[in-house]
Amino acid sequence: MIVFDQVTKRYPDSTVDVVNQLSLTIPDGEICILVGPSGCGKTTTMKMINKLIPPSSGSILIDGQDIGSIDTIQLRLNIGYIIQDIGLFPHMTVAENIATVPVELGWKKDRISARVDELLDLVELEPKIYRHKKPRELSGGQRQRVGVARALAADPKIMLMDEPFGALDPITRAKLQDEFLNIQAKIKKTIVFVTHDIDEALKMGDRIAVLKAGRVVQYGTPMEILARPADPFVSDLIGGRNSLKMMNLLTCGDVMETVGLATDFAAKAAVSIQATAQDALAEMFRTGQSSVLVLDDQKNIQGLIRLESLLESVSDYGRSN
Ligand SMILES: Nc1ncnc2c1ncn2[C@@H]1O[C@H](COP(=O)(O)OP(=O)(O)OP(=O)(O)O)[C@@H](O)[C@H]1O
Ligand SMILES: [Mg+2]
Predict the structure, then answer these.
(1) Which domain holds residue 156?
(2) 89, 185: one domain
(3) CA 160 to ligand 1 center in whole angstroms
């Protein structure tokens, strides 16, 4: 768990606090997103966790221990860090880049080599092909993958990711986001993830901290932020269509009806139980039906979603979450 307790960062030459009395608790195993406009203090907040920037006042605790009392090198070796533009070492191969921290930790050659291959597999880069390449021989998306692998190398408990998918085209970006969520489901790191893109925040975050001028204006789950934006600034950031965005966070399994199915078997449209509620809505529009069947992987009927009750259940979620 990472705790920010009344943390402020003030530069001598500036009149405003870049980070202002920030308090935040980031639970273990979750992705916590820092989102907000350029200059609101996201990178500064993140860099205070691995002591790249010292706070002016307040304290940061990791598992109850004030980071001020933890040796800086030890602290950084236990935190995976992906900087805003990835920053692979250009003269090193992919394998050498990934091995940076394990080498620092004095791991044996065989162990490092096995770990590099394991991580390349994890980020879906064939080790035989990619170990020996240099960063300049990789696409942007491949470099991002190597950045993720390098940050994970020594199996740190905490990962700091500063706009890790920022400079990618939308398709590659969505793919890497999905891959990363799959990886996180296996490794369950405590992740602080910076983005200025609210849709990325809603997709990737277990919790989202909305920052404005160095302050947290709202901290909550994506559902809470969508259902009850704290103020007009958060509403503007979300940009409307909150119900549709909420449907993106719910699966068909979450919103389907399972009773009284027999009478509705005539429904002509169907969706997978893992699909989003938004997919169900799209399928209704596509087929012109007012209900869709929900199927499991074996194509067995598990439930039914009716347009009317879908809209109702989303607004219920808004009220109760
Ligand atoms: N060394 C410094 N001295 C004075 N002010 C600084 C210094 N470093 C950063 N700042 C200011 O602190 C503020 C927050 O910067 P920070 O890098 O945390 O923003 P950010 O939210 O990460 O923005 P972006 O989305 O553009 O990356 C900015 O207004 C910036 O100008
Ligand atoms: Mg930044």
Answers:
(1) 2-241
(2) yes
(3) 17
Residue 113: partners with Cβ closer than 8 Å, 6 or more residues away: 95
DSSP H helices in 229-276: 232-238, 242-249, 252-255
- Indicate which residue's Cα is closest to atom 30 of ligand 1: 39
Q: What are phi and psi of 14, to 5 degrees?
A: -110, 150
* Nearest ligand 1 atom to alpha carbon 42: 21
- pLDDT per position in the chain (321 positions), as tens? 999 999 999 999 888 999 999 999 999 999 999 999 999 999 999 999 999 999 999 999 999 999 999 999 999 989 999 887 778 999 999 999 999 999 999 999 999 999 999 999 999 999 999 999 999 999 888 998 999 999 999 999 999 999 988 878 888 889 889 999 999 999 999 999 999 999 999 999 999 999 999 999 999 999 999 999 999 999 999 998 888 899 999 999 999 998 766 655 666 789 999 999 999 999 999 999 999 999 999 988 899 999 998 988 887 776 665
Looking at 241, 265, 285, the residue that finishes a domain is 241
CATH code for the domain of 68? 3.40.50.300
pTM of the entire predicted model: 0.90
The ligand placed nearest to the CA atom of residue 38 is 1
d(CA 196, CA 199) in angstroms, rounded, equals: 9
With CA atoms as reference, report the closest residue to 243 among 256, 233, 255, 253.
Answer: 255
Among 215, 241, 267, the domain boundary falls at: 241
Distance 43 CA to ligand 1 centre (A): 7
